[in-house]
Amino acid sequence: MNARATIIAALLVVELAIVGEVIATVRPSHPSGSTAGSINANAAYGSSLVEDGPHRIFEVGAHPALFVDIGYADLTIVVRHIATIDAGLRSSADYGLFRSQAAITAREDGATIHVVSNDRARLSSGDDRMVTIVVPPSTQITVLSAGDVKAAGLRAETSIRSTGTGSVTIEDYRANSLHVSTANGNIVLDRISSGRFDISSRHGDIDATALRIRDGRVETRDRISLRFAPGTNTLVSAATRDGNVSVAGTAGASSRELRLGSGKGHLDVLSRNGDINLDQDEPSS
C-alpha cells in the first residue's frame, strides 16, 4: 500500500469511529434511566439465550418472580399452570448492518429469574428479536425495559415499562396492582381487575375495556378510552387540556366526573391534547 492509500485508509477509520460515537450518543443502545451498569455486571454470570435455539428452563416455587431488562427487544409473556419459567429467543428479521448483536442472558437468583441484555453502547438501529417467557400465573413480573410487550393471564403484581416506540397489550389480568408505562407507544388493556391501576404514556393512546379497578391514575398526551365492567366502585375524575371528555358517547366539557357503584375508590384520568371517553358495560341479565 503506498503512502497516499495509507493516509486515505487512516482517514476512513477515523471517520467511521466519529460516526459511531455520534450514533451511540444520539441513540444509546440501553434506554436512559435503566440500571444498565449493575444489570450488565450480573448478566455476565447468566447463560446466553440462543436465537431460535434451546430454551433456558428454571424450576420455581409457589411464589416466583421474573425480572426483565432487554432494551428494545420485544417480549411476550405466556401463562401456563407449570412449576417452571421457560425463556426462549426468536431471531431478528433484520439482517442489516445495524442489527443488534447484544447477548440476552437468563439466570436464577433465589426465587427471581433474570432475563437481561448486556448491550453496551453498540451501533444498533433497534432490536426486533422476540423474547418469549412462559411463567406460572402467580409470577410477580417486573419489566424494566422492552420493546413491544404482550401478556395475558397474569395473577400477581406486575410492572411493565416499554421503551422507544414499543406498545403494551395486557389481557385477563387479576392482581392487587398493575403499573404500565410507555415512552411513545400505545397501551391496550382488556379484562383488568386491580386495586391499584397506574397507566401512563408520554406519547401514545390508551384503550382499556372491561376494567374493574378501585384507585389509580391514567395519563397521556393523547387519546384515552376507558370502558368499565359492572361492579366497579370508584369515582373517575377526568380532565383534558385540548380535548373533550365524553361519558357514554355524550360530549361534555374539558373535565367531568363519573361515579361508578359506591364510588369508594378514586381514579384520575388526564390527557394533555387528546379526547377522553368514559363508558360502562351494562350488567348481564
Number of strands: 21
Class from helix and strand fractions:
mainly beta
- Helix proportion of residues, in percent? 10-25%
Mean of residue pLDDT values: 84
Distance between the termini: 86 Å
Strand content: over 45%
Q: Please write the string of helix (H) and strand (E) elements.
A: HHEEEEEEEEEEEEEEEEEEEEE
Tally of helical segments: 2
List segments where confidence is low: pLDDT < 50 over at least 5 consecutive residues.
1-45
Largest sheet: 21 strands, mixed
Global shape: globular
Radius of gyration: 22 Å
Please tell me about this protein's structure:
A hairpin with a 2-residue loop joins strand 6 and strand 7 (112-117). The chain has helices at residues 3-26, 36-43, and strands spanning 47-48, 56-59, 65-69, 74-79, 84-90, 104-109, 112-117, 130-135, 140-145, 149-152, 158-162, 168-182, 187-201, 206-220, 224-228, 234-240, 245-247, 250-251, 255-260, 265-271, 276-280. It has a 21-stranded mixed β-sheet that branches. The model is unreliable at 1-45 (pLDDT under 50). 11% of the residues lie in helices and 48% in strands. The protein is built from two helices and 21 strands. By secondary structure, the protein is mainly β. The termini are far apart.
Which terms summarize this structure?
mainly beta, 21-stranded mixed beta sheet, globular
In terms of topology, how is this protein built?
Blueprint: H1 3-26, H2 36-43, E1 47-48, E2 56-59, E3 65-69, E4 74-79, E5 84-90, E6 104-109, E7 112-117, E8 130-135, E9 140-145, E10 149-152, E11 158-162, E12 168-182, E13 187-201, E14 206-220, E15 224-228, E16 234-240, E17 245-247, E18 250-251, E19 255-260, E20 265-271, E21 276-280
Parallel strand pairs: 3-7, 3-9, 4-8, 4-10, 9-11, 10-12, 11-12, 12-13, 13-14, 14-15, 14-20, 15-21, 16-20, 17-21
Antiparallel strand pairs: 1-6, 2-5, 5-8, 6-7, 16-19, 17-18
